[in-house]
Design brief:
Strand content: 15-25%
Order of helices and strands: EEEEEEEHHHHEHEHHHEHEHEHEH
CATH class of the largest domain: Alpha Beta
CATH topology of the largest domain: Rossmann fold
Number of domains: 3
CATH architecture of the largest domain: 3-Layer(aba) Sandwich
Distance between the termini: 22 Å
CATH superfamily of the largest domain: HAD superfamily/HAD-like
Largest sheet: 6 strands, parallel
Shape: globular
Mean pLDDT: 83
Number of strands: 13
Low-confidence stretches: 1-35, 37-44, 61-77
Structural class: alpha/beta
Strand order of the largest sheet: 10-9-6-11-12-13
Length: 341
């Protein structure tokens, strides 16, 4: 974070033989008690002179060569006030990757078999790395377009294949969700509860229109009971969807990640400044979006992609959110625990 170094006030006071000048930097944590800045301390003379038999008092400031000057500087470390979570790959191990892969396989081996030789697609070519690089974190239509472009699948001017692929993937992912073909990440749920217990406001921000379907099926109270977690923020029957203070998942934004629009909207609805928010992301595009919005970014390398997340600008990269140093976070710093460092 870059501190604001503009002087916002200069005060002087005289009395009891002392003089003090204060210049304070305009920092957010300045209040009526704390005022970091540059301080100069000196004294003044108080004398009585007899002029024409009449005593005359006078006071003069003295320029002392050894006047004490105290400079308080350094970067302000703001306390985080809000935390924003992506859903797929961060909170839940969702079937999105499986749905994208299987929907394209069905089309290539069925209705699109006549164009298969004109593409670079094969069942083996649609790897997890392709999903991570080309589709993860993107809205449905953007993801479908990226996949078809990557495999050089031809389409007409009206994008019929694009629409067909997106629709088939959506139908498949809904079937998989309804069948319970997904799991929540325990480390993410523990971290989420810990943040809310610490007083942070929490939000969900996924480009997926299926995110709320996932979140509504996860019982946070049952998870806490199984984990032996006691928290005043939990109540019987509480779902993960209900736990969030704001949820902007699945909305139609003008710009998808890596544009920060979705995260800036979430921060606004949480009522926190972007600089006071942290974002949890597993996709490079999401990390780039957080950085573009001037937010802290924690990259979660669940697919052995730590280098990609670090290159995207993550402040720290972890394999599990259990590795995040909660004490450092409470002080406004992002760091990993000593055991994970």
């Amino acid at each position: 974070m870059t501190p604001v170094r503009r002087v916002c006030e200069v005060l002087t006071s005289t009395g009891n033989g002392r003089f003090c000048s204060r210049a304070a930097a305009e920092w957010e944590d300045v209040d009526g008690v704390h005022c970091p800045g540059t301080y100069a301390h000196g004294i003044y003379n108080r004398e009585t002179t007899i002029l024409g038999g009449v005593p005359v008092g006078n006071e003069d400031l003295v320029n002392l060569p050894h006047c004490l000057v105290l400079c308080v500087s350094g970067e302000r470390m703001p306390r985080f006030e809000g935390a924003i979570f992506d859903v797929d790959g961060v909170l839940v191990d969702s079937p999105h990757e499986k749905a994208w892969r299987e929907a394209l396989r069905e089309l290539m081996e069925g209705d699109w078999a006549d164009i298969r030789d004109r593409t670079t697609w094969s069942p083996e070519a649609f790897t997890s790395r392709v999903y991570e690089d080309q589709l993860s974190g993107k809205p449905r239509m953007s993801g479908a377009r990226a996949a078809l472009a990557y495999f050089h699948v031809p389409d007409d001017e009206e994008d019929h294949r694009l629409l067909e692929y997106a629709q088939r993937k959506q139908a498949m992912v809904v079937r998989l969700i309804e069948a319970g073909d997904f799991t929540a990440y325990p480390d993410a749920l523990r971290f989420l509860i810990a943040l809310k217990d610490a007083g942070l406001r929490v939000g969900a921000a996924s480009s997926s229109k299926n995110a709320n379907l996932f979140l509504s099926k996860i019982r946070l109270d049952l998870f806490a009971e199984q984990q032996g977690i006691s928290s005043r923020t939990l109540r019987p029957g509480l779902t993960l969807l209900e736990y969030f203070d704001a949820d902007v998942s699945g909305r139609d934004f003008a710009h998808g990640k890596p544009d920060p629009e979705i995260f800036l909207t979430a921060a606004g609805e949480l009522g926190v400044a972007p600089e006071a928010a942290i974002v949890m992301e597993d996709a490079p595009a999401g990390v780039e979006a957080a950085e573009a919005g001037a937010m802290g970014a924690i990259g979660i390398a669940r697919r052995d992609d730590a280098e990609l997340l670090a290159a995207a600008g993550a402040d720290i990269v972890v394999k599990s959110l259990d590795e995040v140093d909660l004490q450092a976070l409470s002080e406004g710093r992002l760091a990993v625990t000593g055991a994970a460092a």
